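Long-time lurker. I teach an intro course on protein structure, and each term I like to show students one example going from raw sequence to a predicted 3D structure in token notation. This year I'd like something fresh instead of my usual example. Would anyone be willing to generate the tokens for the chain below so I can use it in lecture? Attribution to the forum is fine with me.
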Amino acid sequence: RRNKLMVQSVAPDQRTRYADCEPLWYDVITCPHCLYSNYYLNFFDVTKASREMIRKVLDEQYPTASKLYRYGTAVDRVLLSYLQAIHLNEQLHASESALLGLLWLRLYWICGSDSPLADPCAQNAAQYLCVAFDQDQITTPSDRYSLLLSLSYLLVRLNSPDLAKYYCSMVLNCPNPKIRTTASSLMNKLQAQ
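-- Reply from a regular --
Happy to contribute to a lecture. Here you go:
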């Protein structure tokens, strides 16, 4: 439960860092037997119709994935879990851009900006989040403003300042003063370029 953790810092891109724990490592659950992985809120939402697709995808990947899962490091297992969850959700829920964008964003945060995986993760997160916002898939105001700001920073990283300005401008009327101030600061930097 994140409300029991002590917040260490919140980055401008809205990644929250906690003292002595990294909850992002636990947002995706993986079955140790079959390696089915999914976001913790969706892990048990397996319908009869989706079981066959899941079984097919897992059967294709199991030989390679099982070796990495069993003999890899803890970081390898976390990366594998996220990539497996993303792949399964792309097959089963391709229209759920908000979920896919969130998974890619969290994987980007886990990898870190210096990782060779950072740019592909940022690109995929931005692509899915843009679609999610354009289709109004994210309706909770607090999630909406935080993710809009995260998306703006991803777009800056991907050298898309015009799109970053577009999404950042949606955050300027946020009721949360910290988020609004961060968005205003980013917008000033973007306009100065």
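Some talking points for your students: The first helix runs from residue 48 to 71. Residues 38 and 55 are 14 Å apart (CA to CA).
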